[in-house]
Amino acid sequence: QVQLVESGGGLVQAGGSLRLSCAASGRTLGNYAMGWFRQAPGKEREFVSAISRSGARTVYADSVKGRFTISRNNAENTAYLQMNSLKAEDTAVYYCATARYDSRWSAQPYQVSLYDYWGQGTQVTVSS
User: How far is CA 119 from CA 56, 65, 73, 84, 125, in A?
Assistant: First the structure.
């Protein structure tokens, strides 16, 4: 059974940092693209970042570019999201997910519909 488990969320002051982890079981992450999404209360789920199978290509939403860094360690079957210079508007539940690494993902890696398995989410709260 495929499972993705996020961890590393918590409460942090504006300007601080957090590192989120996504550990997988039942699936070899190296065969799939990975994405991070977030959802704030009362708002729809939004794209944050994505990374190709090998990590050679990374994609970021404009709102986090320059502050967040996505990475992966396929030997450990884990993906990460390093979040620096956090702002109050970053407050949300953060989810990791896997996607088939094909032409559709290459064209539109931000499309939530391309991701097949999702973690349970981890809460990130930024105070100001």
Answer: 23, 23, 17, 22, 18
CB count within 10 Å of CB 93 equals: 18
Non-local CB neighbours of 4 within 8 Å, separated by 6+ positions: 22, 23, 24, 96, 97, 98, 117, 118, 119, 120
Determine the pLDDT at residue 1: 78
Q: Which helix (H) or strand (E) holds 13?
A: strand 10-13
Q: Please write the tens of the pLDDT for every residue from 83-101.
A: 999 999 999 999 999 999 8
**Cβ atoms of residues 114 and 98 within 8 Å:** no
The residue assigned the tokens 């590192």 is: 19
Residue 28 predicted with pLDDT over 90: no
Q: Please state whether 66 falls in left (phi above 0), alpha (psi between -120 and 50) or beta.
A: left
